[in-house]
Amino acid sequence: MPVVPMREILDRAFAERYGVAAINVVDDLTLEAVLAAATDLEAPLIVQTSLKTVKSLGARQLHAIWRARADAVPVPVSLHLDHCPDREWITTCLEAGWNSVLFDGSELDVAENTRQTIEVVAEAGRHGAQVEGEIESVMGVEDGIGSEEGGEIHPVEVSAEFISATGVYSFAPAIGTAHGLYKAEPRLTPERVTELVAEHPIPMVLHGGTGLADEQFTDLIARGCAKVNISTALKIAFVDAHREYLDANPGKHDPPGMLAHVRTAVKAMAERHIRIFGSAGKARTFDSAAV
Ligand SMILES: [Zn+2]
Asked: pTM of whole model > 0.70?
């Protein structure tokens, strides 16, 4: 079963209204840890990579690591490229074998974003891959992409027109969430998800999930956010676990011991989110062929 098209994972999650964790990994250790979490909980999982991670590890090298790890797990998994404004890197990742890409045209005006997203959807289709679209930039900077202020918020009708004009498979609406850590209580606009899904029943994507309350997750998932992105929570688990280990073991130089501690923390973080999102046990319902 292991690697399946993104639509295999999200069509079902959207129909049954559970959320699939889409976790940004940064290296082989974090990749293995989140796959182990999904395996233990029998959950489908989306692994994501930021453009920064792809650039630092190399697309082919990163994909080879992914494929070797993913082929060894019994749960359905898919690989997604997070926020990518660069068309050449979209092409590179699609050619390397990513199952899904987010073409981030949020810095473009909507007409130009629409025009380019149509091209990306056609290109991805030739690779059997899906495209996530967005027109409003999510507040906050993530791996060098985005701005603290966020961009203009358009009426829901503009998003609905973008979805029908481009044929994107999934869509990331602006709903008041932000990348990074929340400095103040987020003011969410979950009704935008409901309104968009009523017009276009396609999977919605929740960005900026780290720091939301469990009830905010479950409410947005019930409204149609089938893909729930987790990036900051992994960074915190990863870095804090290193720090904890080093503080607790001054003078010790034991890489395997430190890495085992980090893996445990990252895996626990992934398990916590998979449970909240309602996807634990859902891998049992899949029987489709792998890609
Ligand atoms: Zn995002």
From this structure: yes
